[in-house]
Amino acid sequence: MGFSTVAVLMFDRIPLFEASVPIAVFGERRDDRPEFDVRVIAAEGGPVRTDAGVTLAAPYDLDAVEGADLVIVPTWRRPSAGEPPPEEALEALRRAHSAGATVVSLCLGTFVLAATGLLDGRPATTHWRYAGLLASLHPRVEVRPDVLYVDEGDILTSAGSTGGIDLCLHLVRRSHGTQAANSIARGLVTPPHRSGGQAQYIDHPVPAPATGDPFGDTLDWALRHLDRELSVDGMAARALMSRRTFDRRFRQVTGTTPAQWLLHQRVLHAQRLLETTAEPVERVARRAGFASAVALRPHFRRHVGVSPTAYRETFGMGAGDGAGAADGVNLSVGG
Fold first, then answer.
1. What values do phi and psi take at 82, rounded to 5?
2. By residue range, what is the domain housing residue 244?
3. What is the predicted pLDDT for the residue at 334?
4. pLDDT at 324
5. What mean pLDDT is predicted for residues 261-289?
6. What is the CATH number for 149?
7. What is the CA radius of gyration of the chain?
8. Which of 17, 56, 239, 323 has the fewest Cβ atoms within 10 angstroms?
9. Residue 208: inside a domain, yes or no?
10. Which of 5-19, 25-39, 92-106 has the weakest average pLDDT?
11. 240 within domain boundaries
12. Mind telling me which residue stretches traverse the membrane in this protein (predicted)?
């Protein structure tokens, strides 16, 4: 799975930052890093216009894909427009994979890779905002919206803009070792590993339940009293329903059970407290309805992908300045 020749396919009207990621990771030459032959390809011929109004002059055409060990599609124009990728580029990707190249997509580039058919029956990811669209357009792809990247050996996909950096560093680490990957990460001033997946970056607004009926009022009341010990039987009584009727109505309205909903809302509340207060994790846990920080942590990690303190270090008021108490931060990446 080693590689030295990297082909980067650039399409017209693509986001500029994502397009630059593989060049930033593989293109700089220094004594303490492996040297890569990077071929930047105009996948549709001619200059490549970006969505930032900057035009790039890519020196290679699709013929340069042949012989590359690693072929990367760094991004694609907004997929909501429904425009299919050009068949010539899709065929070049298929030939490269058939010849033994490792084929990679970053962020929206997964839509191009999915159009080749190479992802059929495989897990893959893309930016969480477009994961549903990817699943709709390519139902044979097993879309995983909650991870930073998916490594299937000969085919890899990543999520989001900086998720592309994560995957490119993973490729270096996989083929050239940790020291090489760490050197590149230091040059980019980025962590060589990131903990958790996309779940920590997805905004889940607390829903506003319908009011004007006892059921909606009960959900609203529960959201305002998450720090209390709330039982499903007590909620059903407050909604003037039998437990069985309440459970049935709850699933119809929310798509889940009362217990699962309560747990999810408590984790969401803990997220907001970690973002907006400097209270200790123990206090945050109790305000969100957990018995202790010990009780909060496994649920938080399962829903969000990282520990409460790791989340606060990224999204809290003091993010970036070292704020946050120790909470057993796990720096291994989830792929």
1. 80, 10
2. 214-315
3. 32
4. 35
5. 91
6. 3.40.50.880
7. 23
8. 323
9. no
10. 25-39
11. yes
12. none
